[in-house]
Amino acid sequence: MPEFKLPDVGEGLTEAEIVTWKVKVGDVIEINDVVVEIETAKSLVELPSPFAGEVTALLVPEGETVPVGTPIIRVGAEEPAAAGGAPAPQPGASSGTPAPEMEIDLSNPAASGGGEGESLVGRNKADRGPTRRARHGAGAAAANRQAQAAFEPGAAPPVEEETDEEPVPARSVVDRPGVEEVAQQPSRDQASTRALAKPPVRKLAKDLGVDLTTLTGSGPQGSITRDDVQAAVGSTQAEEVAQRPSRSQPATGERETREPVKGVRKMMAQAMSQSAFTSPHVTEWVTVDVTATMQLVERLKARRELREVKVSPLLVLARAVLLAMRRTPEINSFWDDAAQEVVYKHYVNLGIAAATPRGLVVPNVKDADSLSLVELAIELGELTATARQGKTQPADMAEGTFTITNVGVFGVDAGTPIINPGESAILCFGAINKRPWVDEATGEIVARDVTTLALSFDHRHIDGEKGSRFLADVAGLLQDPASALLF
What we know:
Radius of gyration: 29 Å
């Protein structure tokens, strides 16, 4: 029967975590129905199915990370054997020729959903309404899956017959006569069926490195117990592991907890370490009176063409960065260490660092330098909204040329940001606060809107003069937005 293998959804990723199954065993799906949500090293992605039929097995549990190419779901029923033990041929297919598998293009991020959480190719099964049909046959594999439901919450429940009546809750496996005998019968599917064991027993086996499929269970319905696992490795080691406190339920007085680093956080850690220890960072700071910028923001909010989008000081800063790059193009270049060349980009993919529950992501606005102020406001709004939902696709984070990180939203004045790999500079935007400021014209101390900017740049090819000029230009545009007419 067809097995859907974990694909590479782009950017040469090698593994992904199964986050949420959107279907369960017994569901009937169509091609392009969304079946699972995965987390790659860069984002959450919804995967549509390339197969149609009944879901017969979920091969990877939620929370497990598996390599690309691993079978994750099985769709379609086992074909009944013909007389003499030979498998029955597929209708309309020649003998010995397997039916070709249907394929979909998963290299296109749009195929996995994006934007405001909508899937452009894949669709959720819920959009078609619930669909169930009767299971074919009562083989040992089906009975084993029914028995598994009694031991693992969320495992495949027994499938009811399709009927127009109200659904009746599934009974426990112990109420079904004959299940134990059927489950213990030998079958060619038994090797591919998961061993019966409760979640705590599975965790103990995983910690001890015990393969549950090699054990003979002594519990009900042939399930594997803690004693079975402990007997396989020796009681002393097993007791030590069993007494370790769970990370999700800390023991009283626990002094340490451990959390695996994976997905977006793992990618972020690797990227920041690589950048910090390969690019010689220099950081410069400037404190700016942005009262005129705040007044401009209020005027822009009243503009008819900007009433439907978010207008903030970040929008004005982004525009100032794009204008300042015209005088200092080195800021929008990067050092190619392998070729020993400086690569100048004649376009700006403006990245905006966004903190999400799964870690830091930096989606970017493609060709931001070619957009009008209204278009830039729309793109920034969509970019940040998608990032907060955790739906940013890998393509949206690729090929950035310059990044702005806005720590001001947390009330932080400034920081020393680390350059994103493949770029040469990053600008940190601090909080805007009312502060006492000396009016240069009158010499009086007045209350003004003030912020701090910090620019980190790669000192291998951007010297202090170029970095300082760029930072001064950005600060000047925020202090006097009308000076943008000079660029």
